[in-house]
Amino acid sequence: MPEPPWPAVREALVWAMGRSHAQRLVVQARISNGGGEEALAAFYAEAGRVVGRGPAGLPHPDEVRRLVVEAPQAVWERGTERERRRAAVHLAAASGMGAGEVGGGVLVEALAALMPGVDWGPVADSARPAESEGTLESWVEAGALVDPLARLQAAGEQEMAAARDVARILALAGFLYVMHGLLMPDNPFLACLRTRVDESGLAPIASQLAPQMAHPPGVPHALAVCLSPEIAAVTTWVEELIDEQADAG
Predict the structure, then answer these.
(1) 52 CB-near residues (< 8 Å, 6+ apart)
(2) Could you tell me what percentage of the chain is helix, strand and coil, using 3-state DSSP and rounding each to the nearest 5?
(3) Confidence (pLDDT) at 143
(4) What does the alpha-carbon distance between residue 94 and residue 90 come to, in Å, rounded to a whole number?
(5) Residues 231, 117: contact at Cβ < 8 Å?
(6) What is the number of structural domains in the chain?
(7) Is residue 91 part of a domain?
(8) Is residue 1 in a domain?
(9) Cα 148 to the chain's mean position, in Å?
(10) Is 157 exposed, middle or buried (CB count within 10 Å of its CB: 0-12, 13-18, 19+)?
(11) Around Cβ 133, how many Cβ atoms within 10 Å?
(12) How far apart are the C-alpha atoms of 92 and 26, rounded to whole Å?
């Protein structure tokens, strides 16, 4: 199939992202910046409400499977989910008001909570001196780092095509990963894939990409995440496993 008309694709993605709840939250953060304590309190209250409604990923499929089979009346631990929701609020604040609003340490922790498959140690090591020297804002361009609309606007055709391929692979892996918890028949390849996803730290992202890619409003968010070169690099590890298993029949 021929490639789509990328200028029209970019226009559609930017239009959809610009009208999303997540982007409206970033805009509110920018408006609140410098507005005093009342404006900040209003932003964080709205951020908690918006982020609280969105998806935060599922528990580990082994835990879901245990609850479904062994303990259907039990409730699962939601600590990790709360951590990811707090991280999303911190990123919205950093994107709209600058990294100084949350601090370098909190910003790196938020990124690690939402993208645990990436080694954020070197980033944290460089953020600490930047913060102590008062150069944090120049150390990180918050909009390019955490603003999905800015990422889509800055992406070229090849970057968008690459992000689409990353999203396709991760969504497939996420679907197979999540369905294990819903009693999909298992085999050695699927067990190996779940282990690989767990080891990479991509589980929260992969499990969320599966429904996002199947739901049109989620596609711009999925592609914005997959524009990250760090996510693309870790995804290559998962793709190699799929290729190995395909070659082995």
Answers:
(1) 85
(2) 80, 0, 20
(3) 40
(4) 6
(5) yes
(6) 1
(7) yes
(8) no
(9) 10
(10) middle
(11) 10
(12) 5
**CA-based nearest residue to 116, from 87, 75, 145, 137:** 87
213 domain-assigned: yes
Q: DSSP letter at 201?
A: T
Residue 135 domain-assigned? yes
The pLDDT assigned to 142 comes to 40
Digitized pLDDT (tens) for each residue of the chain, 249 residues in all: 788 898 899 899 999 998 887 788 778 888 887 777 888 888 888 887 777 665 555 677 887 787 777 776 666 565 567 777 788 788 778 777 777 777 778 888 887 777 666 677 777 777 777 777 777 666 555 444 557 888 888 888 899 999 999 999 999 999 999 899 888 999 988 998 898 888 877 788 888 888 888 888 889 989 988 988 878 887 888 888 888 888 877
Burial of 39 (0-12, 13-18, 19+ CB in 10 A): middle
CA 192/CA 190 separation, integer angstroms: 5
Backbone angles phi, psi at 184, to 5 degrees: -65, 135
Instruction: Tokens for 99, please give them.
Output: 């990294």
Range of the domain at 161: 6-247
Q: How many other C-beta atoms can be found within 10 angstroms of the C-beta atom of residue 152?
A: 23
Going by C-beta distance under 8 Å and a sequence separation of 6 or more, which residues neighbour residue 5? Answer: none
**Entry pTM:** 0.71
Angle made by CA atoms 48, 197, 77, in degrees to the nearest 5: 40
